[in-house]
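The aim of this short unit is practical: by the end, you should be able to scan a pair of folded records and say something sensible about each. We start with the first protein, listed as its amino acid sequence and then its structure tokens.
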Amino acid sequence: MRSATTKPILLLLGGIVALGLLGLAWIQGAGFSEAVQGNMQNCPQAGKWAISVWSGDSATDTGQALATCGEGQVAVAYSIDPQTQTWLRWFAGRPEVSTLQTLNDMQGIIALGAVGAPQVTSTPTLTPTPGTAGDVILVSSNAFTTTSSLLIDGESRRMHVVGELRNESAMPRSAGEIGITIYDAADDVIGFRGTLAFDDIIMPGRTTVFAETYPSGLYLSSETNDFPEGWTRYEVTLSPRDPYEWEELPVDVAVENVQVADDGRHVTGNAVNASSKTVGQYGVHVYVIYYRADGTILNAKRKTTVNDQPLGPGESAAFDISFSSGEPVDFSSYVVQAYAEPE
């Protein structure tokens, strides 16, 4: 698996500053596999943060320890690793992105209480629920609008749709073509676009993302390219498949020295070829995924021109990813990943 860099951003000023929780969905907590000795002290209230302390057996599974607050009562938890001084995180029902695996006796954490239902907002919101499509699943998705000084057919507005995918099979898979259908309040189709995942081939257990914009400078004649005026919801469909015979498996690319600046609008670092194969010119793609406090995707951005020369084993190339003004970057945590095929 490729390495990833994660870092939750929390504000601590003699206590906990409440984080925005618009649209936080109800999350099913982990169940008990065996009896747990102990209790979580100072459990968080619904939709609020709390400094909680585990009082019980050391090396207790985090999900089981938090479940002593009540099934499904805790959505998110963070703790600082005493060795590395970096944040560890736990998301209910999200083991693939959780790094806070166990708790020790008298260990303190920052915990967020789960909310019983999403809040209603006056702006268009995500309506499709994550689901399966074979063995590649849609974990979560998000849509938002921005404006740009660059006009496309006289249009300054943009609608963006991003989504996180995961290969839950034991074999390499492709997400195939990803269809995004936009609907208005009358449930009429007002837009359609086909797109692809950032990872051409998704390795077992690996997550990747897709991102699409209406309108954009590149689209097929069978697709719409207008701003979907009056959109209220969208649907995402997947067509997973096995890799074709001519497709090579991706090489191992690590990311190092990741820095996030300008309140999340600027991400830099180095991509390192950790494999024994050479990657061709511009073959390394690096992307950042921003997550909300509940672990769902907020935004994502990719850099596709990282290495202007072939990248040999052990060699590195710097990357620089920038988010446009107006894009949501008020993330709670993030992951930076790289993808590349051999030369």
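Turning to the second protein, read its sequence before its tokens, just as you did above.
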Amino acid sequence: MNKKSICCIIFFICSNFLLGKSFVFENKFTLSTMINRQDTTLDNQDNFIPNTSPYEESFKSPGKALLYSGILPGIGQVYMKKWQRGLLFVALDGIAIGTWYKNNNLAEEKKKEYANYANEHWDFGRWVHDYYKWEPETAPEDFSGDLESWNSIREVFVNKSDTLSGCDDHPYCYVEIWNHSHHVEFTWDGEIISSSQTLQNRDFFTDKYDELCGDYSYLNKTCDNDSSAIADKISEHSVVVIRDHHFYEGIQKYDMFFAGWADNDSVKVVIGADGSSNASSPNQSTYRKLWIDYKTIKKLAVYGGNFMLINRAVSMIDAVLLAKKWNNKHNVKLSLNAYPDLRNKSGLGGVKLSLHFN
């Protein structure tokens, strides 16, 4: 035996003795029982050879605890033998799921209810025909109230801030149907048209409005076509209102849409908590209540969904802390280190996972 071989054997024996019989295996995973300090190292290789050891029961994987609670809150606690704690998280998750599911279904039912009510009591043709009903500065002969009542109603629909157009003085300027930031979208011969005037559709809606109203007069703000003639034009051009979420929200919220309600003759002015004035009628008031009920129920469903996420996050964090507390109590330490390899382009040779038992 040459001197080189003898030196290798002596180095191996001495290193094992000085390092407390620490073992490093390539392509293997083993846990050894020793009287003195043990170091067991796992290299990131493919094959694992598990051995039975009391230390296997001592170590609790924080990764497993995190994963289990991520799948279902409470399972990570069950993995840590904390049964009551786990059942609490499971119960809270069940309550959250029940709250979300029940209120989400109720919200969908309420959504159908308010949509059906709006479809029955709000009409696009009526909105076009009656939009300028309150534009005249003097009350029409068929108005049952006095001039003060007429002015209070008209004031809801006028613009008091446009100084360039001279609209900042009484009786102010009535806002044109296309001069609103909010709008109605509808199809016209298959083309989508917006009622709001922008640089892109400046002439689109005004042209359609003129055709619907006939010889529309910009001076007296009246439609020559009556409601039935407008309905015929709507049918002729296959006009269909796009009744999306913004539409259903807008018709109960913004005064510009008030003329579309079937009972707009019963208009009255209501003062909000913030002091603002808004037009209202029995139909619009009923619809607004349906809308508010929907929003309230939908909010409860969202709360249930949010609580599901919070409960899952808390369960995951709690499970990891329990695993760390367990390992500290049993003197189990876990370390993860990377070691270099200049032969690789990245310079990384691998990752070493080590368990240390005392």
